[in-house]
Write a structure and sequence with these properties.
single chain, 318 residues, alpha/beta, Lysozyme-like, Muramoyl-pentapeptide Carboxypeptidase, domain 1, 2 domains, five-stranded mixed beta sheet, 9 helices
Amino acid sequence: MMNVTTPTWNHGATISFQPPSRNVHTVFVHCSASDRANHDDVSVMRQWHVNRNPPWNDVGYHYFITKAGHIQTGRPVANIPAAQAGHNTGTIAICLHGLKEELFTQKQFESLVALCQSIDAAYPNQRIRFRGHREVSTKACPVFKYKVVLGLDASGHMTGGSNTAPPTSAPVAPPPRADKSTQILDNGKPVLILQSLLVLLGADLQIDGIMGQMTAQALKAFQQQHSLLTENGLDAKTRNALIKALDRVTSLKKPDKGQKVKALQQLLKLAGAKLTVDGDFGNKTHAAVEQFQTRKQLTVDGVADAKTQQALARELLG
């Protein structure tokens, strides 16, 4: 059960930021990569960070902004954050709870602006720079338009022209990595493949093509189970292990229904079949399996057995 952390500032409260004695020149904005209500607390972020591999001694962020716009304190602001590898010294880290841009709230944005204004005002003799984590990382974090929300100029300084209106469009996805690895907040085909394979192997996941915390945790659990390095994402060894693990899955056939059928349909669709991903193994899914089996010179019976599922994974993972 999620602990409920008492906010340092409730939404709409006057924020009085007290600067630490250490030098600060930049504030970095992050997002939590989850929209789940039971993750909407800094205590959950702390648990994730302390239990990561290798472990940290505290949550990496100084402040966490809930969907209700309440601001919770994480790591003491006197301490250097662990949030932007290679760019932690001289910074303050703020994380907003969220994964999909359209689900961030206006209250969150209002609290982010108020907190950043208070931080900015606490340094009258210098100009604090505000940046997104994605400026120094291949991750898409934060996934919302923080420059618009905070009213930043080209150098990352606040101009007073903030915009806390709810978002209207999704951000551009980061370019795919040549090694086919995946990171938090990646989206698109590689994530759909990964989620579908994890579901076929028993994970309870939504197949939405977004690498959120639940997908990342399911991948980590699989890697730990197979003695693989968890920090390398969907690397070659993990891809091979996923394919091999499918040799133990149960067959899917007419008239099966459910999440595993959705995963199979998604993989068939990515492999070229014209299918609706509805979780219902009907005639069209049966025909799509037969067509794939014919193409791969497998036994053609319309039953997605372990060999068929492995062949799908092998084709899509490369």
